[in-house]
Amino acid sequence: SSLQPPEKEGGLPRQVGNKTECGLLGFVLDLKQDYEPVRNLMPEEKLYKVYTFNSVRKSMSTVIKMPDGSFRMYSKGASEIVLKKCSRILNAAGEPRIFRPRDRDEMVKKVIEPMACDGLRTICVAFRDFNSSPEPDWDNENDILSDLTCICVVGIEDPVRPEVPEAIRKCQRAGITVRMVTGDNINTARAIAIKCGIIHPGEDFLCQFNRRIRNEKGEIEQERIDKIWPKLRVLARSSPTDKHTLVKGIIDSTQVEQRQVVAVTGDGTNDGPALKKADVGFAMGIAGTDVAKEASDIILTDDNFSSIVKAVMWGRNVYDSISKFLQFQLTVNIVAVIVAFTGACITQDSPLKAVQMLWVNLIMDTFASLALATEPPTEALLLRKPYGRNKPLISRTMMKNILGHAVYQLTLIFTLLFVGEKMFKIDSGRNAPLHSPPSEHYTIIFNTFVMMQLFNEINARKIHGERNVFDGIFRNPIFCTIVLGTFAIQIVIVQFGGKPFSCSPLQLDQWMWCVFIGLGELVWGQVIATIPTSRLKFLKEAGRLTEKEEVPEEELNEDVEEIDHAERELRRGQILWFRGLNRIQTQIRVVKAFRSSLYEGLEKPESRTSIHNFMTHPEFRIEDSQPHIPLIDDTDLEEDPALKKNSSPPSSLNKNNSAIDSGINLTTDTSKSATSSSPGSPIHSLETSL
């Protein structure tokens, strides 16, 4: 760690390395001292022993060898923890004096707590001298890190970024509860949380966690976690496992009806389990370790909390974009299928021709997905509560929109189909000869259908019952381009498509009627938005993720102990290992068949049913008095001696490759003598290659 000159004149020095150490070095410079001569006198390679910082001891120590052969250890760490290990303290003259427990309590009240209440992280700096003979046992940390002499207690402020309080307010407005997990003491953590806006004075919140979730035996109980986590906002003096315990406790909680979705940020190696367990893991791109990045789902390249708000906004926007496209596509599908099928059944001729349907599919799939999926995210996405894990892709409001617009379109299409020729005083086009020119009647139906889809595409921009469907439409140039481009291509198809598109050019008044009916989609959308969704009891949601069915406890085997996550991963690895051995056994059988063909007319070599016997050369065979060595645990065999005696290799491979049912055994055959193959024989080379 070091302080570099500022990039701009008059700016703050650039901090390189650990921020806490850089703060201490800056304090040294403010005292008009220089740390470089000390480093040159005692370079890093001359350090005798280093106790690195970890979250358990919450301190770090460095041992150096003095010129007279003695040793001196310098320590720094959490003030209240290091002070408990101090028996002396330097006075104003730099001389050590006795540091009694009541002196420590006084320092905590008068020095540490006021600093912590101001949001300062307090650090105690201490030292201890050791004799050269006998040399201390450096591995005995409890003895080494005791009887210290306190030098000073310093307060370091980790300033809150200006954008963080606003980002936290946005999260809270979006229904996201922000909880802070920190190693600072409770006063420092509370002060920082108030600055960030995580907690507010006068609120009913909790800042303690570890002691409240354990019973008299020190075991964690889910029931205790369920009582605490709804009010928990700050977790101070956290241990390495506290974050994982909190994440697991919230996910497994039955306190609320809906399962909570948990996102976690982390940068250290200790955060890996919590990042893996959480639904969404955020790792720091700058300060994060490789372990944290590997365990996370998203990496924040700028280490900024406001980027999490952007991730939430984009996540909701992607989900909404899928729902918008589904709402539009299902409306087009329902109408197109019913019109084509019903029209063909009633009039013996589909109103929508084959090439026209291709154009409709192009509008419905490619263009609509580009138009509706490119909506940029807005701050309005953060004004509603989270969906939760079980949010359907098609809500009841969307189902109302789909059915409502489908009814409008089908009504007008069938009206034009049966009375359109009378309205426009044109030929109906029904029962026309095979090579007759395209019908104006069917062209109007096709054009009206496309116009309704174009204007319904604007309606599909809103899926939560909003009335202003034009809100923010000009912020998405792709949407505007696709709608206007589709309209222009439709004009070309109708006016100049001719026989390939089964279209007849339309008059201006006919075009006006088609556009007018299409505009009716916007008006009809306002009518649909007026109808309360709660009144339509028959509407159902669709696209909801199904949860795994809970297995009743009485159906579970009482003798089977609960398997934790690590054991489950081990079992999964064993299954993969067994499956691999299954495949090798199959290959062995193929090789045995190949051998039998090679040795036809010669003395048949020994049959090797075991992978060990097959892969091991005869001169290196291991004689074993136990005829069968099972791969899987022998605990079951120990419980059943009869099974242990009668165990034998399987006669055939299991068809589904299940490791549990296959009963694979590795056996060593000592009943027969091996027939050695010469090093130059094809059998020897085949064994070597396998």
From TrEMBL:
The keyword Cell membrane applies. Gene3D superfamilies: Calcium-transporting ATPase, cytoplasmic domain N, Calcium-transporting ATPase, transmembrane domain, HAD superfamily/HAD-like. It is found in: Cell membrane. GO terms for molecular function: ATP binding; ATP hydrolysis activity; metal ion binding; P-type calcium transporter activity; PDZ domain binding. NCBIfam families: ATPase-IIB_Ca (TIGR01517), ATPase_P-type (TIGR01494). It comes from Pelecanus crispus (Dalmatian pelican). One of its GO terms (cellular component) is postsynaptic density membrane. GO terms for biological process: regulation of cytosolic calcium ion concentration. This is Plasma membrane calcium-transporting ATPase 2. Residues 573-619 form the Plasma membrane calcium transporting P-type ATPase C-terminal domain. Pfam families: ATP_Ca_trans_C, Cation_ATPase, Cation_ATPase_C, Hydrolase_3. The keyword Ubl conjugation does not apply. Keywords: ATP-binding, Cell membrane, Ion transport, Magnesium, Membrane, Metal-binding, Nucleotide-binding, Phosphoprotein, Translocase, Transmembrane, Transmembrane helix, Transport. It is a multi-pass membrane protein. Residues 640-690 are annotated as: Disordered. Its main location: membrane. The chain crosses the membrane at residues 326-346, 402-420, 477-498, 510-531. Residues 644-659, 667-681 have a biased composition (Low complexity). InterPro entries: ATP_Ca_trans_C, ATPase_P-typ_cation-transptr_C, ATPase_P-typ_cyto_dom_N, ATPase_P-typ_TM_dom_sf, HAD-like_sf, HAD_sf, P-type_ATPase_IIB, P_typ_ATPase. Residues 350-528 form the Cation-transporting P-type ATPase C-terminal domain. PANTHER family: CATION TRANSPORTING ATPASE, PLASMA MEMBRANE CALCIUM-TRANSPORTING ATPASE 2. It comes from the Eukaryota.
